[in-house]
Amino acid sequence: MELETLSQTIRKHSLTQRAVLGVYVACFAVGAFNHGRDFLSYGARPYNWAPALLEAFWSALLFLDLATIGLLLLGKLRVGLALAVAIMISDVAANSYGFFVLGIPGFKVALPLQAAFLGFVLGSAPFLWPNRETA
CA–CA separation, 46 vs 42, rounded Å? Predict the structure, then answer.
């Protein structure tokens, strides 16, 4: 089976679908950039001040965000969209815990933006989900 080129994958989708997928890629790229910056600024354990599960999750987001971008760009929509939904639900839940329970002030601005993107992902994913013939 031959791998499709990125341009072949992109041409399969309508302009609206491409725009929505572009928002996904851009937002996950911002997340990956922020987590990558944290690694560069603070070293191998940039969130070592957080509880262990949150530290592990936030550290994994760099790789999960990049994987989501790659899957979406390669046309692996089912797994890419499923990963996007799972990441955003768990990220908003983890960051809500960090803000409301742990009192981490850095989420005051980020959390509403992430929650809005979660709503966008949950609202748009069903319309992007490919049928069996195109999956």
Answer: 5
